[in-house]
């Protein structure tokens, strides 16, 4: 009997192809397989989230929600929403296809379209271009098949949508409403594809994981009830406030989420600096990282403590206490510490230089966050005038400039 090669088995329908781009309708052959929970999931989850400032309860909640279906992570900017999605994907042994939503999105961006393109010999031809969801689903099907052959290969691919509510989702998602709202393998029609390659079935392992900025809602589109019903919404917030009796310290494993964030900010900023300084000599990165962390914790802990005290007062400001409320995220704090330490290593490490540089870092990284139409100028001005040293110079002046601009607060009529 003549040997039958793999391509013949694929063509005969005996086994699915490893690439469904030209055989989209055959995704149905692998669509019924549900998402697997890796046997070592807890260990994987702990490992991939070890450097995220996210509570255990939120991690377990998001993990359970993903096993059930599509998820939206909502919260202020910089709270680690996208980082958490990517970490969870690694824990589930899944790859991600990332896109950022925008207000011009239509069904053509999500499902697909025809485009006029030039061939290699400079001739024009009409070419089908898959939208974000179609491409992610096809890649998901490819991963399902390849995972069968190699369990270390990602078991699926998920669509990661950043800034979900910047798009008009009812317009962009169209007929996907019916598909996302059922467990049945309902096909989506792909009018941009050729005959015989137009029916797309979404595998049960596929997920849409989206992030939503809950602070800038006034600048984005509202989500309809139809969209909301098809996602589980989970909130990520800034860490809870530190106990006033606990000092700021560098202790990654501390029981206080606030102190863990403080420690993580130092660690992550130092990692970025060490990686940049040692890009030509990566073998020295670890030593430089230790040196930077030691320098920060021995010489600048007081300055960073003062910075975090200010940030805490802003994060948890109560109405009537004269402090503007702003949910400053961890990412913005990492950026601030990184640029402070970078400039300090450049300019010299004297106490006067360090005071000037941390004040400058706050003025260029934190002050712009106050350009928001939900903050009152009088309150911001009062706050700026009462900032402690060393933040009473450049940081305070930048806040006063913002308060004086009169562009960030529009009172309700």
Automatic annotation (TrEMBL):
Residues 67-241 form the AAA+ ATPase domain. SUPFAM superfamilies: P-loop containing nucleoside triphosphate hydrolases. CDD domains: AAA. GO terms for molecular function: ATP binding; ATP hydrolysis activity. Pfam families: AAA_5 (PF07728). InterPro entries: AAA+_ATPase (IPR003593), ATPase_dyneun-rel_AAA (IPR011704), Methyl-DNA_Rec/Restrict_Enz (IPR052934), P-loop_NTPase (IPR027417). PANTHER family: 5-METHYLCYTOSINE-SPECIFIC RESTRICTION ENZYME B, TYPE IV METHYL-DIRECTED RESTRICTION ENZYME ECOKMCRB SUBUNIT. This is Dynein-related subfamily AAA family protein. It comes from Paraburkholderia eburnea.
């Amino acid at each position: 009997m003549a040997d039958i090669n793999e391509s013949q088995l694929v063509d005969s329908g005996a086994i699915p192809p490893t690439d469904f781009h030209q055989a989209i309708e055959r995704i149905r052959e692998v669509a019924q397989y549900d998402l697997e929970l890796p046997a070592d999931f807890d260990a994987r989850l702990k490992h991939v989230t070890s450097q995220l400032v996210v509570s255990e309860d939120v991690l377990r909640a998001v993990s359970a929600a993903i096993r059930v279906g599509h998820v939206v992570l909502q919260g202020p900017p910089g709270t680690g929403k996208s980082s958490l999605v990517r970490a969870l994907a690694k824990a589930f042994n899944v790859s991600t296809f990332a896109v950022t939503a925008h207000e011009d999105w239509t069904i053509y961006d999500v499902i697909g379209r025809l485009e006029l393109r030039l061939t290699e010999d400079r001739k024009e031809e009409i070419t089908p271009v898959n939208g974000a969801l179609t491409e992610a689903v096809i890649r998901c099907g490819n991963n399902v098949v390849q995972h069968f052959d190699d369990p270390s290969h990602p078991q699926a691919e998920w669509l990661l949508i950043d800034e979900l509510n910047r798009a008009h989702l009812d317009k962009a998602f169209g007929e996907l409403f019916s598909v996302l709202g059922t467990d049945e393998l309902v096909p989506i029609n792909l009018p941009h594809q050729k005959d015989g390659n137009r029916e797309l079935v979404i595998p049960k392992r596929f997920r849409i994981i989206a992030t939503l900025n809950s602070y800038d809602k006034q600048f984005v589109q509202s989500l309809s009830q139809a969209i909301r019903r098809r996602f589980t919404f989970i909130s990520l917030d800034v860490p809870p406030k530190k106990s006033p009796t606990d000092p700021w310290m560098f202790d990654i494993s501390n029981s206080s989420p606030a102190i863990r964030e403080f420690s993580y900010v130092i660690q992550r900023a130092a990692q970025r600096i060490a990686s940049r300084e040692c890009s030509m000599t990566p073998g020295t990165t670890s030593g430089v990282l230790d040196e930077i962390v030691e320098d920060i914790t021995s010489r600048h802990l007081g300055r960073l403590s003062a910075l975090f005290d200010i940030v805490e007062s802003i994060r948890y400001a109560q109405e009537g206490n004269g402090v503007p409320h702003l949910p400053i995220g961890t990412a913005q704090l990492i950026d601030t510490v990184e640029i402070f330490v970078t400039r300090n290593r450049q300019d010299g490490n004297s106490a006067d230089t360090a005071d000037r540089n941390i004040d400058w870092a706050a003025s260029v990284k934190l002050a712009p966050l106050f350009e928001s139409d939900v903050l009152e100028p009088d309150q911001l001005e009062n706050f700026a005038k009462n900032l402690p040293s060393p933040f009473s110079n450049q940081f305070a002046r930048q806040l006063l400039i913002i308060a004086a601009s009169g562009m960030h607060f529009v009172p309700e009529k």
